[in-house]
Amino acid sequence: MFSVLQRRLPVGAEPAGSGVHFRVWAPRRKQVEVVMDRSSAIPLDREPDGYFSGIADSARAGMHYRFRLDHGDLLIPDPASRFQPEGPHGPSEIISPSSYRWKDDAWRGVWIEGQVIYEMHIGTFTQEGTWNAAREVLPELAETGITLLELMPVAEFPGRFGWGYDGVDLFAPSHLYGTPDDFRGFVDRAHSEGLGVILDVVYNHFGPDGNYLKEFSNDYLTTRHENEWGEAVNFDGPGSEFVREFFIANACYWIEEFHLDGLRLDATQQIFDNSPNHILCDISRETRRTAGQRPILLIAENEKQRAPIIRRNAKGGYGLDAIWNDDFHHAAHVALTGHNEAYYSDYAGSPQELISATKWGFLYQGQYYTWQKQPRGTYALDLAAPGFVTYIENHDQVANSAYGTRAHDLTTFGRYKAMTTLLLLGPGTPMLFQGQEYGASTPFLYFADHYPELAASVEKGRSEFLSQFPSIAHGNTAFFLGSPQDPATFERCKLNHEERRLKPHIVALFRDLLTLRREDPVFSAQRSERIHGAVLGHEAFALRFLGGSDGDRLILINLGRTLPLRPNPEPLLAPPGSSRWEMKWCSDDPKYRGPGCPALRTAGTWKLPGHSAVVLGTDGN
C-alpha cells in the first residue's frame, strides 16, 4: 500500500511512481471508487479516520476522473481536484505539479515593508481574460512602481464569469483563465519582473452551486455559527480536525506548488473558530513552514477591525502581516465626494480623520459605531504602519458606487491627485485597484453567471444590499448598474490598456509619486511614530515627517479652495534649524495637467492652492 506519508498533500490525486495515488475524506460513505476515463472503477481502501485512499497503476497526469460513492449512479468531482477543465460539475483532471519548469530560482520572497499592492481580477484585467494575456502587461506595472500583485480569487466557480468569491473547488484554478501551468507561468513572469504575487482565498464559505462536500461528509459545514453567505465552515466542531487539515493543506498548496508569495484571507470576521488555537494561527504557522527561508505575506480583510489578527503569536495574536484599513478608505471617500450615507455615515472626511488614519491606522478602535449600533474595532495604537493596507479604490468599493465608477470620476481631478499623494506617500502599505494607475474609464460592477433561479436570487440580494444607499435605492440607477448575470455587465468591466498611452499625465502622477516613496529615505522608512499632523483649515492639513539626519518632509494637502495662512502660528510648518524648505513635488505640475506650482511663501505668508498637494523637504542636519 502507498504510504500517506509520501504524499505532498493529505488529499487529492497525486502522481506517484508509475501511477497516481488518490485520497479523499469521506466518513459519510462505506465505499469510494475512482472512475477513470474509459476504464473500470477502482475501489479505494478505507482508513480508520474516514479517509479513503489507493493507487491506480494505469492513471497518468492529464487523465480525467470522478468518484463514485457507495455504488451510486452519481459521479462526483474530487473536492481536492487540482483542475476542473469543464467547470465544477465536470470531471477532475490529474495534474502533475512537476511538469512546469520554474525559472525563479533567484526570487527571494517579499516582506510587508516597502510593498505597493495592485489588486487585479484576471477575467477583466485584459480583453482576453487569461493568465497568458495578463502576464504581458506585467512589465508596465513594474515600471509604474507596483511591487506586489493581489489576485482576486481564482478557485473554480460555476458559470462563464464571476468575481471568484463563490468558489467551490479550492485547489483548482479556474479553467476560465487557462491551465494550472498557465498560472505558474504568470507567477514566474511576475517574479522575473520583480513583482510578488499573493492570492485572495475564501475560507469563510463555499459557493451555492457546485459544492459537493456534503456528499462526502456533513462535517465540512456547520449551522452553529451564523454566516452572511450560508453555512459556516466547521473549524471547531465534531470532525473539524479533518476540515482544518483540508484548509491548511490548501493554503500551503498555493505557496508550494504555485510559488505564491502569500495569501489575502477574505472576510476573516466570518471565519468562526472557538477552539483553543484559531485556524488563522495554524494557517500562518504552516504556510511559513512550507515557504521555508522564503518570506511570505498573509493579509487579512476583517470588517470588525480586530487588531489581534496581525499581532505576533507571542502577544496573543494570530501572526498575520497586514490588514485592510476600511477606515482610511471611508474617510477618503467622504472627503473626495462629500457623500456619507450608509456605512460612510460615521465618517466626516475631515482633515483630522485623514491625519489620524495616516498616523494610527484604524479610526475606530473600540468607539461606538452608530451605523452598526455597537462598538467598532479594537486597540491598535501599538501596531506598525506597514501593517495597515490603505486604498481609495478596491473591487468592493468601486462596485458599491452607483455605476461601478472609479474614484477619479467621483471628484475633481485636483482633489483626486491630492488624495493620491496622501495614499502613496503615507506610511501605510498602499494598494491600487486594476487600472487605477492610468485612470481607467471602465467601471467595475458586480457580475456573476448562475443558473436562472440562483441568478434571480443573487440579483435580488445585490439590490437589497445597495438599498442601504439612498442615492442608489431611490434613484433610477438600478437599470444602469447592469444585471449581474448579463454577459454585457462583465464585458463592460474589462480594462482597455490602450488608455495607458492616452493618459500619460495620470501614469506620470503614479510613477513619480511611487518613485519618491521608494527613493526618498524619509518616506520609505514608513515610520508613523515620526509623523505629526496639523489641521490648517476646513479641508486642509499638514503632515510633518521627522527624518533625523535625512532631513524633514512636509506634505501640505488642501482639498478645498485656496487657503491663505495669515497668521501662521503652526510649528509643524517651521523649517528645522537654520535650513529652508524646498519644494520636492507638487500635484499642480503641468506634467499632471496642473496650472503650475507657484511659490507657497510670499512676503512672509503662506498660500495653499486649492485642490492640491505639495511636498517640501530639507537636506538634513
Notable traits:
621 residues, alpha/beta, Immunoglobulin-like, eight-stranded parallel barrel, five-stranded antiparallel beta sheet, 18 helices, elongated, disordered N terminus
Provide an overview of this structure:
- The protein has 621 residues and is of the alpha/beta class.
- Among the domains are: 4-95, Sandwich (Immunoglobulin-like), CATH 2.60.40.10; 525-617, Golgi alpha-mannosidase II (Immunoglobulin-like, Sandwich).
- It has 18 helices and 31 strands.
- The strands form eight sheets. An eight-stranded parallel β-barrel has the order 10-11-14-17-18-19-22-23. Strands 3, 4, 7, 8 and 9 form a five-stranded antiparallel β-sheet that branches.
- A hairpin with a 4-residue loop joins strand 20 (368-369) and strand 21 (374-375).
Architecture blueprint of SSEs:
Blueprint (H helix, E strand, L loop, with lengths): L11 E5 L2 E7 L6 E5 L4 E3 L1 E2 L4 E6 L7 E6 L5 E2 L15 E2 L23 E4 L1 H4 L5 H5 L2 H7 L3 E4 L3 E2 L12 E5 L6 H13 L3 E6 L11 H4 L4 E7 L2 E4 L6 H18 L4 E4 L13 H13 L5 E4 L21 E3 L1 H12 L13 H10 L7 E2 L4 E2 L12 E3 L4 H5 L13 H13 L3 E5 L18 H15 L3 H4 L4 H4 L5 H6 L6 H4 L1 H16 L1 H4 L6 E7 L2 E6 L7 E6 L4 E3 L16 E5 L14 E2 L2 E4 L3 E6 L4
Parallel strand pairs: 10-11, 10-23, 11-14, 14-17, 17-18, 18-19, 19-22, 22-23
Antiparallel strand pairs: 1-2, 2-6, 3-4, 3-7, 5-6, 7-8, 7-9, 12-13, 15-16, 20-21, 24-25, 25-26, 26-31, 27-30, 28-31, 29-30
Give the strand line-up of the largest sheet: 10-11-14-17-18-19-22-23
Q: How does CATH name the architecture of one domain?
A: Sandwich
Largest sheet: 8 strands, parallel, barrel
Beta strands, count: 31
Q: Which geometry do the CA atoms define?
A: elongated
Approximately how much beta-strand content do the residues carry? 15-25%
Overall residue-averaged pLDDT value: 94
Q: Give me the number of helical elements.
A: 18
Please, what is the oligomeric state? single chain
* Stretches with pLDDT under 50, minimum 5 residues: 1-5
CATH third-level topology of one domain:
Immunoglobulin-like
Percent range of helical residues: 25-40%
> Given the helix and strand composition, which structural class is it?
alpha/beta
Cα-based radius of gyration, to the nearest Å: 26 Å
Distance between the termini: 72 Å
- What is the CATH level 1 assignment of one domain? Mainly Beta
Fourth-level CATH superfamily of one domain: Golgi alpha-mannosidase II
